[in-house]
């Protein structure tokens, strides 16, 4: 009898794996056990990730637009944190309830069971679920991630706010130092600024957005400094942290030498790490500290009957990637039962960061100019400033830019945008890139209706360059 156990069944990756196996229960799979100890259940993205963050960002977006619209009179409104959190909690509760219902519905089928308990490995494919030992033929680990706390001297002696704390905050400090300027920092810094927090950001590199071509990172710096009045210390590192009578002091070292940053609070947006503590992976012969410990088949190197998907494997903590990895894990479990070769997971690079209070999101699909050059692809790159397009002017959001990378044969290889509706345009460009469409054959108006000019301009420029 073939038994599959999914640990972390409420999350997006776990649900995708379960859905991919569901129709095989009763034929190729005898039993499917879904395990999650979440309280309330719902998964990371719903409870502490992309859904609640977009809820609070919407308040920042409305305030930003109000204070930048010269056609409106009077002082801009203040963000009512109580109302923001109350609305967010209501919506998130509904989303989570829907996810729990979906899991319960799967568990209502013959051969499928849901257990609201904690699971850990006690053997190769043996788990202790609650107080019972459960034998499995295949295990999928989809336990998500948790905030990463860096090793900085003195950090353990001060209080700090993580992204989860900010999402629940009905009271915020007057000032703060921000550690971490990746996806989380880029999204939450404008929210905090619009809520009235005076911020200083510590950025280790010359610019943010490591995956972007340099012009986009430079634009982000200008945008945050000029539009949100945020101080950003680039090429600067935290040396040590201490508690003060008024809050916190962060000792840093940068281009101008050592300095001390004082603020009321410290915001820790230093990324996330896989949530693997307490799983007992070593008992299953798995070393999560090993490089590339999860293969592209989603199977672990130490145990090919254990797959790790989503944020838990540390590969690419992105929602759509988690879902796709969950599906691949399910497909490969079925492949193992059929004695077939496993599928290797490959995805078109597709990231969206809701930067600039979601008014100026950054998106990348496929190749950037730098990655195309690194891959040795024969290509042309065309660029367009958002300020040239009337649609952005009429919406009073003229900042930003976009680029299109096209192969010498006309194949669209990639798109980058930092502009209004870049997130929506990325959805269209993902289809274009995945299908390998020719730049001269992209259907007219086959994209977001409010971004025609910038894409039209890029397509036209690319076609001209290829002639």
The number of helical segments is: 12
> Which strands sit side by side, in order, in the main sheet?
3-2-1-7-17
Query: Which secondary-structure class do the elements indicate?
Result: alpha/beta
The low-confidence parts are none
Keywords: Disulfide bond, FAD, Flavoprotein, NADP, Oxidoreductase, Redox-active center
Cofactor: FAD
InterPro entries: FAD/NAD-bd_sf, FAD/NAD-binding_dom, FAD/NAD-linked_Rdtase_dimer_sf, Pyr_nuc-diS_OxRdtase, Pyr_nucl-diS_OxRdtase_dimer, Pyr_OxRdtase_I_AS
Protein name: NAD(P)/FAD-dependent oxidoreductase
Short description, anyone?
With about 475 residues, this protein is α/β, with parallel strands linked by helices. The chain contains 12 helices and 22 strands.
Tell me about this structure:
Belongs to the class-I pyridine nucleotide-disulfide oxidoreductase family. InterPro entries: FAD/NAD-bd_sf, FAD/NAD-binding_dom, FAD/NAD-linked_Rdtase_dimer_sf, Pyr_nuc-diS_OxRdtase, Pyr_nucl-diS_OxRdtase_dimer, Pyr_OxRdtase_I_AS. The protein is α/β, with parallel strands linked by helices. A 5-stranded parallel beta sheet has the order 3-2-1-7-17. Strands 18-19-22-21-20 form a 5-stranded antiparallel beta sheet, with helices on both faces. A 4-stranded parallel beta sheet has the order 11-10-9-15. The protein is globular, with a radius of gyration of 24 Å. The mean pLDDT is 94.
